[in-house]
Each structure stands twice: as structure tokens, then as C-alpha cells.
Amino acid sequence: MDAIKSLELLEFELWRRWRSKISDQASNELTNNELDYLYALNGLIEDVSLSSLACQMNVSNASASSMVSKLESKGYLAKIKNHADGRGVRLVATEKANALRELEINIYQQVDSEFRHAFSDTEYEQFNSLLSKAVDILLKK
């Protein structure tokens, strides 16, 4: 199997596992688009600005603001006034959002455990090294 197909299948499997886990907790309450925003926020969640969320989602500030209002009304985000900039607000995860984040972390831990058991110690070290290098390459864009 080539790298492109492997990446595609890996992404799909992680997404499938995440959706399966959160479906018990949030599927009746959140739309796919709202889940996408929460998923994007997982990487940004500590004191996020609206503009950084919009940038992460590649949408306008107005679009992000509308989604933030929906997530706030459902109890997943809170808006906190930014004291450094009286006009701005920071987005803070609530316990509900943090619970979804914990589910995601559990999925990654489970997958890591599956890899650890399937690989030899040397293969696992090589895998981690190459995976770290791949992440560094992608984040330097």
C-alpha cells in the first residue's frame, strides 16, 4: 500500500473512532459542522481568539462567530472578556468540551497501544521518530 492510501485510511479510521465515541455523548446535540469546529478547537482550546478559530477553520470571522454562539448556547464554549484588549473575547472550553477532548485523547492512546503491541521495540521507536518528523514537516508550512 502506498503512503497516500495509508494516510487516507489512517485519517478515516481515526475519524471513525472519534465519531463512534462521541456519538454516545453528543451526536444528538451537535451537527457535523459543530463537531468539526470542536475538533479544530481541540488543538487551539486554551484561550483561543475568534480570529484564530476562523483562521484554523479557514472561514470568515462572522462565520466563526455564528458557530461560537451556537456552541456557547449548547454549553461547549464560554466567552471571556480579554482584559488585555477590552474589545476582544477569548474562547474557553467548558467541561462538556473538555469531556469530548478526553474521549479523543483516549482514542489516540488506544491506537498508540495497538501500534506498540504490533511493532517490535525498534520498529515502534522508528515509527515514533518518523511520525514526529512528518508532523514537524506539516506544521512548518
From TrEMBL:
Cross-referenced Pfam families: MarR
SMART domains in the cross-refs: HTH_MARR (SM00347)
Name of the molecule in the record: HTH marR-type domain-containing protein
GO molecular function terms noted in the UniProt entry: DNA binding; DNA-binding transcription factor activity
Keywords (A to Z) from UniProt: DNA-binding, Transcription, Transcription regulation
Keyword RNA-binding: no
Listed InterPro entries: HTH_MarR-typ, Tscrpt_reg_MarR-type_CS, WH-like_DNA-bd_sf, WH_DNA-bd_sf
Positions of the HTH marR-type domain: 1-136
Residues in the signal sequence: none
Species: Enterovibrio norvegicus FF-454
